[in-house]
Amino acid sequence: MPDVQTLNGKDTMEINIGISNEHRKAIAEGLAKVLADSYMVYLKTHNYHWNVTGELFHSLHEQFEEQYTELAEAIDVIAERIRSIGYRAPGSFMEFSEITSIEEDTDDPNALEMVKRLALDNEAILRTARSVLPACEEAGDEATIDLITQRLDVHSKTAWMLRSHLE
């Protein structure tokens, strides 16, 4: 029978997935930052979807909806990966705001400024995601490497598409 540990007064099974506790912790902390950045960009993109105006309204309204819908699914996958390696996924705005690299909007930007900010934010997620890779590689955590690789592909393409509006 597996060892049982007590956590917060509850019995839990020891996690033995072939990744050391030290590596799991480093990976979970990195993924928490990716989750926070992704959630903040989700929130910003949804806000822009609601509030975009001007001659680019229709195309940006649709593009922003596609982007926030994809982010909503990604947020769930990232949080579930954190849970699957044995850590609690952050889930409050306060927790996210403490660890994100994304700036919250406090103004009402025009359509092209929205596009520029989202392009920069997607590039920020790319940097955050890349920072998790060394711990994953060192641990041999192929599942998280795959998740991060998928996120790198999506955010690279999204940043490119957004930058294309600015040329």
> Are there runs of 5+ residues with pLDDT below 50, and where?
1-7
Profile the largest sheet.
2 strands, antiparallel
Distance between the termini: 62 Å
How many distinct helices? 5
- What is the global morphology? elongated
How many distinct beta strands? 2
Mean pLDDT: 93
What is the percent of helical residues?
Answer: over 70%
| Cα gyration radius (Å) | 18 Å
Please state how the strands of the largest beta sheet are arranged side by side: 1-2
Secondary structure category? mainly alpha
The portion of residues forming beta strands comes to under 5%
- Provide the succession of SSEs: EEHHHHH
Characterization of this structure:
It is a single chain. The chain has 167 residues and is mainly alpha-helical. The chain has five helices and two strands. A two-stranded antiparallel sheet has the order 1-2. Strand 1 and strand 2 form a beta hairpin. Helix 1 runs antiparallel to helix 4. 31% of the residues are buried. The N terminus is likely disordered.
